[in-house]
Structures are given as C-alpha cells and as structure tokens.
Amino acid sequence: MTIKHTYLGMTAAAGLALLAGALLGGPSPSSALERPRTIELTLANAPKVAHVDIKHRSKAAGRLCAAGPVCLGDSFIATNVPLLDANTKRRVGRADALETVFGRQGEYWTITARLADGTLQVYGQRRHPERVSVLPVVGGTGIYANTRGTMSFADIGETGRARLTFNLAP
C-alpha cells in the first residue's frame, strides 16, 4: 500500500509543479509583429569586403585552388552595407553579412539587417546557378522579435547590388 501512495504523491506533486510552471511562465513567445509584413530593400555595394582565403591545393598538380580564385571554405565578410528602400532609394538601415563557400554550387550566408525598428537575422544557403535564393528568417529584435519568414535574395546585374525581399509572419 505504501508504494502506491508514494507514486501517487510523486505524480500529484509533479503535476502541480508542471501546472505552476505553465501558469507562472506566461504565454509562449510570439512575434512582436501583429500581421504579415513584406519589406523590399536594395543591398547597396559594400564599401569594404574582407576575403578570408583558405588557399587549398589541388591534389592533381599541386596548384592553388584549381577551381579558380574562390575555394571551398573561403569566406567573405561585409559590414555596414547600406540598405535602401527599394521604392524611395532612401537609406533605411545597414547590413552585415558573412558568406562561406561550400563549393561551386553555392555558399552559406548569415545576414543581419539592422533597421530603425529592430534587426532581422537570416541564415541559409544560396545555390548556383539559381538567380533568386530564398533563405529563412530565423529571428530578430525590436518589433521583429521572434519573427519568422523568408528573405528572397536576387542579384541586380553584375553591380554587386542585390534585391532583398523579406516576407515576415507574425
């Protein structure tokens, strides 16, 4: 009989602790956005880009990076890149980006868009030869806290500029 009462008491105590934690913890976090939102920006030319060159050697001929000037593992870092409103062409923020090459087929990108009302954080894969890449928005700060959605990244010609379209869910 004592075993049954002990298990029953432990179960009741655990249940009460779980209920108290749920009530005291408040509602689960949600986005600060109240409705879906689309933001269209132009990523201007980066004033400076740092290239971290891995300098791989080709096994075949002992040559540096047989694939060309950019090799697997090379990284590019750009900071304070102007973000312009796609319609008005006015500066609305800045972006920081890290690109890591994983081969001829693409790169991994981490982008932080710093806007007046918060930041948006993007992480994903750009594949080649696709002209438009869709990367996930993995979060943000300010009014974008806990935001999710996607960011479409499209190069604008050979200018080093790109069109960023954020489709955000609340």
Description:
The chain is mainly beta and 170 residues long. The chain has a single domain, classed as AOC barrel-like (Beta Barrel), CATH 2.40.480.10. The protein is built from 1 helix and 9 strands; from the N terminus they run H-E-E-E-E-E-E-E-E-E. It has an 8-stranded antiparallel beta barrel. The longest helix has 24 residues, at 2-25. The model is unreliable at 1-28 (pLDDT under 50).
What is the fold named in CATH at topology level? Answer: AOC barrel-like
**Multimer state:** single chain
Query: Given the structure, what is the number of helices?
Result: 1
Mean pLDDT: 80
Number of strands: 9
Report the order of strands and helices. Answer: HEEEEEEEEE
Q: Considering DSSP H and I runs of 4 or more, what fraction of the residues is helical?
A: 10-25%
How large a portion of the residues is in β-strands, by DSSP E? over 45%
What strand order characterises the main sheet?
1-3-4-5-6-7-8-9
Q: How many structural domains?
A: 1
Radius of gyration: 24 Å
Distance between the termini: 53 Å
Stretches where pLDDT is under 50 for at least 5 consecutive residues are 1-28
Shape: globular
Largest sheet: 8 strands, antiparallel, barrel
CATH class annotation: Mainly Beta
CATH superfamily: Allene oxide cyclase-like
